[in-house]
Amino acid sequence: MESANSQTEIDLETAHRMMDRIIKQEKRNIQTKQYSDTKMVQKIKEIIREEADAYAD
Predict the structure, then answer these.
(1) Are 47 and 22 in contact (CB under 8 A)?
(2) Is the distance from CB of 14 to CB of 55 less than 8 angstroms?
(3) Which of 18, 37, 54, 57 is the most buried (most CB within 10 A)?
């Protein structure tokens, strides 16, 4: 059983790639107003899921 204080390793390259994708998506949306806030939340969650799935493989 894992301790509640156990640390999770973070792949910095993956984190930077994910942040870049999210920032670019937000920047594009600010300019175009294509997506609502709710839709942007969904898109950001999708990006996180994609990166997490790729990392898990």
Answers:
(1) yes
(2) yes
(3) 18
